[in-house]
Write a structure and sequence with these properties.
With about 425 residues, the chain is an alpha/beta fold. About 40% of the residues are buried. Helix 1 packs parallel to helix 15 and helix 13 packs across helix 15. The chain has two domains: about 100 residues, no CATH class; about 250 residues, TIM Barrel. The chain has 16 helices and 18 strands. The radius of gyration is 21 Å and the shape is globular. It is about 45% helix and about 20% strand. It has a nine-stranded mixed beta sheet with strand order 11-12-10-9-8-7-6-3-13, with helices on one face. The protein has a four-stranded antiparallel beta sheet with strand order 2-16-15-14, with no helix packed on it. A three-stranded mixed beta sheet has the order 1-18-17. It binds S-adenosylmethionine and iron/sulfur cluster. S-adenosylmethionine (SAM) binds next to strand 8 and strand 9.
């Protein structure tokens, strides 16, 4: 729950800088993965977790994106989907149970038939209630032709901007069409899927409030079920190149644009996290990290969090294939966290999801109160901005992990 009374107080100040630096230091300290032969054990409870499935292929690569992905090759991708299903069976054999599946990418919808088979297989093994997929605007037509709108409950489509100039800058205009064309594609898909989310990036260098305001007006006329606004993030591995090509992003402008999002979106949408808004309050699946303390990830470059341990699957497609073929889970690295760090992580995630935390971390609570992150029993607008900034830092930390794991790909796979 959020209280917008302090909306005008959203700004980037010294406390925001300190909080973001502290988060940066914490992620650097804890998100250090070591090689391990330790793997997931037999599941001893009957909890239903979330199954995350990573599809690391894209038809072309966007210059700002630091997620784990390769340029699409059909044969490699078909083999990969087969291996994924083996891995799913291994997790099933260990006794894990799932009620929802989140396909993340990459472009999860790049081979609709394989995706469809994989969904069917997951449903045959587990009692799955909800399927979410990330995708691009190009996939919508073929998903509908393959009847996948009947199998996917929530489809998240990366739009990034409804401004043609920004689409050209981020090299998506030629690949995915003009803003108008993308608008039409999404419009035709709304209503067919149970829920459509669109991803928008804001705070491009020199982006004005008028420009973002136009994007939001377009969104309000399109009325997707959910919208996620990501602040533009220069991951540490891409920062130098992007700053040179596009210029620096401004923290102060990020705060102004965040305030504008809250001001305009709250008239029609309900805020579900510091970044996500939904039109209806039901039928929407939140980003998986908010709802679930534990999840299992399958596929190359997927992470699992169980107990006090973060496990990482190999980022190498060759090693992935070799391990699965030998009947081994493809986990190669892990990090074990102290109890307090887990509580702090859960607290950040709960607050990012605009839920008051149940972690009883009194010192952190005091700091947040002094910052003005709460307004009576609700999260304040200033607090929502702070949690957006902290989540951005956490994403940076995960980008560092991905960059380290991917730096070995040249020797492991002979490719990048
Ligand atoms: C893993 S991507 C998958 C989306 C899909 N492949 C596409 O590009 O349409 C999920 C979302 O992360 C966001 N994203 C990726 N890189 C980002 C960056 N550097 N800064 C901010 N948001 C980013 C984009 O909004 C993107 O739609
Ligand atoms: S933004 Fe989406 S399409 Fe572009 S490289 Fe990243 S995952 Fe692939």
């Amino acid at each position: 729950m959020i209280n917008y009374k302090d909306l005008n107080q959203i700004k980037w100040n010294i406390q925001t800088t300190i909080a973001s630096k502290v988060m940066g230091i914490a992620t650097d300290k804890y998100l250090r993965l070591s090689p391990t032969s330790h793997t997931l054990g037999i599941c001893k409870d009957s909890n239903k977790r979330l199954l995350y499935i990573h599809i690391p292929f894209c038809a072309s690569l966007c210059p700002y994106c630091s997620f784990h992905k390769f340029l699409f090759d059909e044969n490699t991708a078909i083999t990969y989907f087969e291996l994924l299903r083996y891995e799913m069976k291994m997790v099933y054999n260990l006794g894990y149970k799932f009620d929802s599946v989140y396909f993340g990418g990459g472009t999860t919808t790049i081979l609709p038939l394989e995706l469809s088979k994989t969904i069917d297989y997951a449903k045959s093994l587990f009692d799955i209630k909800e399927i979410s997929c990330e995708s691009t605007p190009m996939a919508l037509k073929s998903l509908i032709e393959h009847n996948l709108h009947k199998k996917i409950d929530r489809l998240s489509v990366g739009i990034q901007s409804f401004n043609d100039e920004y689409l050209k800058q981020i090299q998506r205009y030629k690949k995915f069409g003009s803003a108008q064309e993308q608008y039409e594609k999404v419009k035709n898909a709304i209503g067919l899927f149970k829920a459509i989310n669109i991803d928008i990036i804001y705070n491009y260098p020199n982006q004005s409030e008028e420009e973002l305001s136009e994007d939001i007006n377009t969104i309000l006329s399109l009325k997707p079920n959910q919208v996620t606004f990501y602040p533009l993030m220069y991951s540490p591995s891409l920062k130098k190149t992007l700053t040179k090509q596009w210029g620096k992003t401004s923290d102060e402008q990020e705060a102004k644009l965040y305030k504008l999002i809250l001001e305009k979106m709250k008239s029609m949408y309900t805020q579900r996290s510091s970044w996500a808004w939904s039109l209806q309050s039901k039928d929407i699946i939140d980003e998986y990290v908010i709802e679930r303390a534990e999840y299992i990830g399958i596929g190359s470059g997927a992470f699992s969090f169980v107990g006090d341990t973060l496990y990482a699957n190999t980022f190498s497609l060759k090693i992935y294939e070799a391990m699965i073929t030998q009947g081994k889970l493809p986990i190669t690295h892990n990090a074990v966290f102290p109890k307090r760090a887990i509580k702090q992580y859960r607290m950040t995630v709960e607050l990012f999801g605009l839920q008051k935390s149940n972690e009883h971390l009194y010192f952190e609570e005091l700091l947040l109160k002094l910052y003005g992150a709460y307004n009576k029993d609700a999260i304040s607008a200033k607090g929502a901005f702070l949690f957006s900034v902290l989540m951005k830092e956490f994403y940076n930390g995960m980008d560092n992990v991905r960059a380290t794991m991917r730096s070995k790909l040249k020797e492991e796979d002979g490719l990048l």
